[in-house]
Amino acid sequence: MSTYRFNGLDPELLYSLTIVKGIDSELMTIPELKDNGLSIDWADENGTERYHGTRRFKSKTYSVSGVIITSSPSDLQTKFNALATFFMTTGEFNFDDINKARRWKVFYNKVTSVEKINNRSLRITFELIDDYPVDIFTI
User: With a cut of 70, which residues of the chain have pLDDT below it?
Assistant: First the structure.
């Protein structure tokens, strides 16, 4: 059983996908402040004069790496196809970390790499986007 869930379901059980370590540091980053466009950098003054009105933040992007390990080449193709179908047909979905009791509402953006390890396994890296960077959802 995995620490992570896609819409409440374990990706290890559904897709034989094990998410490798490293995602924690990305999930726990503080979002970047948007430039509200209301700043003046006067040539004859030090610093920048900024409007400090409503603070808004940029969407966050997570690079998720994992491995799919199966019992046969046909099972690998089946699991990969199921994962691809989930990404291509699901809009926004819940990405949960059970250990942190935390949920992120994300959507799939793209696969950045697929590396076949052997005929029963592959390494995959995909990108998820979080348009709710300041919201904390608990599970």
Answer: 36-37
